[in-house]
Amino acid sequence: MADLTEGQREAADAYARELAAFADALHILHVDRGAPSYREIATAAGTAGRMALSSSAISEAISGKRLPSMDFTLELVRQLVGPDQGMRDQWRERWKRVKLHQRQASAYRKQSGTRNKIGEGLEQPLSGGDQEVLPAARVEAERIVKDAQAEAESIIEAARIQAEEMTASATQMLLDATERGTIPVAARLQMREHCRIALVGPPGSGKGTQSLFLGKLLEVPVLHIGELFRINISGHTKLGRKAFRYMNRGELVPDEVTLGMLESRLRDPDTRHGFVLDGFPRNLDQAVAVDELLTRTSENIDAALNFEVGRDESFKRLVGRRICKNDSSHVAHIMLKPPRKPDICDICGGPLYLRDDDSRKVIAVRWEVWKAQSESVVQKYGAERRLVTVSGTGTVSSVTERAMSALNAYFG
Ligand code: AMP
């Protein structure tokens, strides 16, 4: 019996590895995904009248002794992972590669008469079952399983997004109903002469998003301090230039700048019956100052609304957040609410961008600043019994509803 040349040996080894990977992947796919038994698969396929996945063919595939047909493979994949075209294409390609190696190896076999050696190469690592499978095959098989899991996760994520969109459109209907005056009484805040609310949750707790809904439901304007700064920055005003470097680092803009800006906004007549103040106060001095500003007109902050979210959730929300250049209330999220076209706003077609301070590094600073300076504001309102705390997790509309009923209970 002639010895194999180096090239022949490589081809034979490649074939053995491919086949082992294939067999192992089928095995792991089956075991890890909790798929039905071989018999069930065979019966299901038989019932569907497509093809017979006989248990002997399956065990041959699993043992790696013989390459099963492409149809068999694709049917098996269909049975295991469902009618997923991407997965089927992947396996079709894989099958073709294995087949090619098989052909090459068999040509070498014929040519060199080394049947037994290749046969040994093929069977030896597989015959003892799981533990003896070639390491490369296992790595490959694990990758396939990982891909399948990632795919399953993305399907779950898509379902979640769909649910979120459905609830968002329900909220929109609620808002439309508010405008038409047909809103159910329970969803509205009981009639009040004024309603001055400060939102005080940590970064990424949803203050910006919720402020829009609450503003509409409470029929008061939203004063968003961060947004006022951003408008000044893009307008290259003196105030914008002052604020820019603090915001970019995730730090608070100095109080004298912030307070002046707020004071002039509070003089606008639309704030007379109240407002939703987003992002203010962020330290104890500001909390005292805003009450002082309001006391001049014998008013004060009626309630501070705190949305509770964890740090991890906040990071996930902020790094994926994309804001529309045309309108900052148009917000997408690359994972949770991906735009239909990449980087384009679904609502108005404007360009989406990542806020400079939504990088991981700056978010970490914003959290430190919140812990060091803003948490005490929450405690102050708590001690003065002006604090309303709700969980900020869940869909947008569920948080809005939670906040509205908590405010109702507080004012009631
Ligand atoms: P926001 O849009 O609320 O996340 O705020 C973005 C940034 O604007 C903050 O990180 C601060 O740099 C600045 N900023 C917003 N509100 C205040 C405030 N009340 N006092 C000082 N800086 C603020």
Write up this protein:
With 412 residues, this protein is α/β, with parallel strands linked by helices. It has two domains: 6-177, no CATH class; 185-221 and 268-411, Rossmann fold. Helix content is 61%, strand content 8%. The chain has 15 helices and eight strands. The chain has helices at 6-32, 38-47, 55-63, 70-81, 85-112, 115-127, 135-180, 207-218, 225-234, 238-249, 255-266, 284-295, 311-320, 360-383, 396-411, and strands at residues 195-199, 222-224, 274-278, 303-308, 321-324, 331-333, 352-353, 387-391. A hairpin with a 6-residue loop joins strand 5 and strand 6. Helix 1 packs antiparallel against helix 5. The radius of gyration is 31 Å and the shape is elongated. Residues 203, 225-226, 229, 246-247, 250-253, 258, 279-280, 282, 286, 357, 366 line the site of adenosine monophosphate.
Task: Give the SSE layout.
Blueprint: H1 6-32, H2 38-47, H3 55-63, H4 70-81, H5 85-112, H6 115-127, H7 135-180, E1 195-199, H8 207-218, E2 222-224, H9 225-234, H10 238-249, H11 255-266, E3 274-278, H12 284-295, E4 303-308, H13 311-320, E5 321-324, E6 331-333, E7 352-353, H14 360-383, E8 387-391, H15 396-411
Parallel strand pairs: 1-3, 1-4, 2-3, 4-8
Antiparallel strand pairs: 5-6, 5-7
Helix pairs in contact: 1-5, 1-6, 1-7, 4-5, 8-15, 9-10, 13-14
Bound molecules: adenosine monophosphate.
Residues 203, 225-226, 229, 246-247, 250-253, 258, 279-280, 282, 286, 357, 366 line the site of adenosine monophosphate.
